[in-house]
Design brief:
The protein has 354 residues and is of the alpha+beta class. It has helices at 163-169, 175-179, 274-294, 307-320, and strands at 12-18, 27-32, 35-41, 47-51, 66-68, 71-73, 80-81, 87-89, 104-105, 107-110, 113-118, 153-159, 187-192, 197-206, 215-224, 228-234, 239-247, 253-261. The chain has a 7-stranded antiparallel sheet. Strands 2-3-4-9 form a 4-stranded antiparallel sheet, with no helix packed on it. Strands 5-6-7-8 form a 4-stranded antiparallel sheet, with no helix packed on it. The longest helix is centred in the last third of the chain and has 21 residues, at 274-294. The radius of gyration is 23 Å and the shape is globular. It starts with 11 loop residues before the first strand and ends in a 34-residue tail after the last helix.
Length: 354
């Protein structure tokens, strides 16, 4: 197993579970960023994520620990810890230990998922997990889509890939024809890498031979750091997706993928229908084709870009460097600032079209 050259501890929001996996009173064991962790849901329904070991004598809170009200109780000596990781009760003492604290992580439940903020320097979150519906501003809500969890999801643990691979896929127009077997090449209409949340949009035209048969569609993507991405697809099957890649250790990541399929007119069924599952299956199948490439990919730097690929990849890789503790992998080739302009379409003679 080869260690990837990209650091596996980028700053940002990362999905560690789907909300439904952490029931009230449950203690959920997991490992991310090389650390044993536990997620637990208090009696009031709020989720907390801790490093897994009790600060008293080091018992693993995921093996026998339990939730009592708003606290997590250690199985070894009954010490109680609140959602902030503070000791609030030692059952055989009159006062808690105020000097010790279990490391806790900022947590957000959004888009059916549990996200933690990870930063090696301990900085507070400085951008948010975008809402799957509010962020696109088209007036649609979750009620317009079939519920995606668990029937319209994919989970692939322990793969040898890096979160940045998924982000780079978003500017890679050339792979559609070869990985997804599509008869088109998308046309990018937006590259905005001006902040920690980036935006990439492209359009697709399916030309059936005559103008009235042309079907226009497209994808809008919002990328909050390297761990959180949401997409909206329009024109063909109405769907929204959420790929999420979370580093487990220095070598591997867990991959999750959630798919929202737009409801058929008049369908208000509480569960996803056969139609919804079928459409979600098609979307997941395409994502699995990408995973097959990513899981065996080597990060190439400097890469051998073609002329058309250069601007998009350069912009994204420059944007990605801000999330690494040391500014990126050693020996990374320097990138010049990208203007954000989309390269114009050109005719066969090389002249720009309108």
């Amino acid at each position: 197993m080869a260690k990837p050259p990209l650091p596996m501890e980028p700053t940002g929001w990362f999905q560690v579970a789907w909300c439904s996996e952490i029931a009230p009173g449950a203690v959920h064991r997991m490992k991310y960023f090389g650390r044993e962790m536990v997620a637990w849901r208090s009696a009031s329904g709020r989720v907390a994520v801790f490093d897994a070991y009790c600060e008293h004598l080091g018992a693993h809170l995921g093996y026998g620990g339990h939730v009592a009200g708003e606290n997590l109780v250690c199985p070894f000596h009954g010490w109680e810890w609140n959602r902030a990781g503070r000791n609030v009760c030692i059952p055989y003492e009159s006062h808690p230990n105020k000097g010790r604290r279990i490391r806790s992580y900022p947590v957000v439940e959004r888009n059916e998922a549990v996200w933690i903020w990870y930063d090696v320097e301990g900085r507070a979150p400085y951008f948010e997990v975008p809402d799957m519906f509010e962020a696109f501003g088209d007036g649609k809500t979750a009620a317009d889509y079939y519920p995606p969890v668990p029937a319209a999801t994919l989970y692939r643990p322990g793969l040898e890939l890096h979160p940045q691979y998924v982000m780079e896929n978003g500017v890679d127009f050339a792979h559609f024809k070869f990985v997804h077997k599509t008869p088109f090449v998308p046309e990018f209409t937006r590259h905005d890498f001006s902040g920690p949340v980036s935006y990439v949009d492209f359009t697709i035209a399916f030309d059936e031979g005559v103008a009235e048969d042309q079907i226009d569609s497209g994808v809008e993507s919002i990328n909050a750091g390297l761990g959180c991405s949401i997409t909206k697809s329009w024109g063909m099957v109405d769907n929204r997706t959420m790929p999420a890649v979370t580093p487990v250790d220095e070598y591997t990541s867990d991959v999750r993928f959630t798919v929202w399929i737009g409801r058929r007119p008049g369908d208000d069924s509480p569960e996803i229908t056969r139609y919804g599952k079928t459409m979600a299956g098609f979307v997941i199948e395409q994502f699995e084709a990408d995973i097959h490439i990513w899981a065996h990919q080597r990060y190439s730097d400097p890469p051998a870009f073609s002329r058309k690929e250069f601007a998009g990849f350069k912009a994204l890789r420059e944007w990605a460097m801000q999330f690494y503790p040391d500014g990126g992998p050693a020996g990374t080739a320097p990138y010049q600032p990208y203007s954000g302009a989309i390269e114009p379409k050109r005719r066969a003679d090389g002249k720009a079209t309108s």
